[in-house]
UniProtKB/TrEMBL annotation, chain A:
The lineage of its organism: Eukaryota, Metazoa, Chordata, Craniata, Vertebrata. GO terms for cellular component: cytoplasm; plasma membrane. This is Organic solute carrier partner 1. Pfam families: Oscp1. Transmembrane segments: none annotated. It comes from Oryzias sinensis.
UniProtKB/TrEMBL annotation, chain B:
It comes from Oryzias sinensis. The keyword Lipoprotein does not apply. PROSITE patterns: WD_REPEATS_2, WD_REPEATS_REGION. InterPro entries: WD40/YVTN_repeat-like_dom_sf, WD40_repeat_dom_sf, WD40_rpt, WDR54_beta_prop. Keywords: WD repeat. This is WD repeat domain 54. Residues 1-336 form the WD repeat-containing protein 54 beta-propeller domain. WD repeats lie at residues 252-293.
Amino acid sequence: MSSRTLPLLFINLGGEMLYILDQRLRAQNIPADKAKKVMNDIITTMFNKKFLEELFKPQELYSKKALRTVFDRLAHASIMRLNQASMDKLYDLMTMAFKYQVLLCPRPKDILLVSFNHMDAIKDFVKDTPSILSQVDETYQQLIEMYTPLSNGEFQLIRQTLLIFFQDMHIRVSIFLKDKVQNSNGRFGLPTSGPVPHGTQVPGLIRIFSCTGEEKTRLQFNNGGNYTSAIREGSFEIFGDRVTKLGTNMYSVSRPVETHMSGTSKSSAQHTKVNTAPNPLAKEELNMLARLMGGLEVQKAGSSDTAFRVNLFATDEEEEEALITRPDELSYGIINIQATKDQQVSAELTKIMGEFTDSGHQSPSSSSKGDDLLAMMDDL
Amino acid sequence: MFHKEKSIQIKNSASALYNNLSVLRIAPRRLTYFTVVHANVVNMVSASWDGLNYSHRQLQSKEPNVATSTSLIMQAAFCVLPSRELLVVTSQKGIQMYESDGSIMVYWHALDTPETPTAQAVFARGIAAVSENYVCVGVSSGAILVFDVPSKGSNITLSEVLEEHKESITDIAAECSGSQVLLAVANLVTVDDGGSLCVWKSGEEFQLLNKIAGLDISCSSVKLWKGTVVAGYGSGQIRIYEAVTGILQSEINAHARWIYSLDIAPFSGLLLSAAEDSFVRVWHLSVTPETNSVEVAHLHNECVTDTQICGAKFCDGDGYAFAVTGYDLSEIIRYTQT
């Protein structure tokens, strides 16, 4: 569908990831300098110029597995380490949060305001580091250039594309359940009250006109809800009041991040089946992924004394328990090589991942990382 | 006025697409077919009127003979012509036409998809049968493809390409009142993402009768009944125009969010509107062509809690029953008059 969806998906998911990591780093009392380094390293990688160039090219959305691979890479772009259970949980939280934001956006165009909320927060994370700050500012420019000229219809297409990506995901998030924005069946509550979106009138009026254009009759009807007039529109510029709270940081040290794995709806299992037939990571997508990841400049993996592990759960035991009890239909599959049925595909991907984890590895030719990957894949 | 009936379960949940429900009533066999789109699959259910038998079928969007290519489906709709009924499925790659039970694909038309993706998305959307033998399908470029359909067989040909719209086509509707008098004048309306409306008369060469410029508010769903255009917009408004003159006859602040589906029951003038705001509303429309006047009355609301509705259709020409689909919902909800 829309070929302009990936940048928004990436930036918003990335933003949610940073909110969660920031909260966990503080909750685990990681020393401030280490925590800052982690955040800076991830943000630098996220806004790498070459990476963003690839991201902003018109293209179809990646599959869930492919996108998960990109975020795995991103989460490990610093000295921080995450076990699989924690990475799974992190990704669940990120995706459910953005799904919620996309669903609740009053107008499709408001997805851009949500993106700006994430960008504003990211900017705040790196406000003391001018080099990264300038990367972030440049990304604002790219977003504004690409998205502000789009019509409402084109934004709706982007929204519909995102909703297909999030289809059938009903993982329950503790913070959403507590705030009563998500029901116990995993579905989000859609209120029939509150302000109508900017550009919409409160439902209830029927006007009939004569053929000369004069209003002949005016009738009222009961709209069944409790709506109020629209409030002011948020700003689509680099600086400004976005008005909407969607996309702002809902976590704090006192509000922990938890997900519930049990009782997820059957339909998510059915959807996974449709998605993975016939080949989950077709050659085409592998090529796209390679080009994208080719732009991800990865730092040298830290030595064992500087690297540290972050746990998305309250205890190590809980983390281990979560890995064992995670329902099959919710496994993302890409990291766990055994889970991928196609051995050929998993072998290819292992090679690609291997390329990145060799610290300081220099390719024989001086061509870009992206070309190396493609050349390597041609040899397979 | 309406009460909820037993829902029909479908194999996958409905995707958030405009007009995502199509209904075909087959009276001789006492069956009704329903189609709901989920990503790259069309879920078809055949439901017997006695409520005892349900059979399911799934259609995938793909080029014939190409094993791995898949593309997302934008819409699936039944096209009823005097001689035959077809199921038309539009996607990012092209247009498929099946026999109405989905058993055989009778025609495939490939869209010009570029080698590398362009900023402007490519897809087909908007489907309607018009007159004796035409099926019209819209394209993201704004073009309308007119297919000539013979009374049987697969010798379907592309008869004409209408290039009037500048934005992606969102919906197409044919005059559904059955009045021969009106069909002789204007019998097709096409709408786009910018809210522009074009009114046509079908024929060997389709004639553009009127163009109503859009106000940059996307028109997602449209119906043509008794020479009257009923259009639903992203702003939540329904606007009613006289087709041939383009005169605005009524404006309704109908919904608090983007309208996704409209339907009219041609024998009774009942109008159904459904939106992302979780509401389905039933209205009564009466049109007096002689005096160019229209009357609209609001009759009923149904709230499908916590659901963004993407399809709503009457199940019969009188509007005795209607069916609804919603994003992420794996059922077709039905309502009948009390």
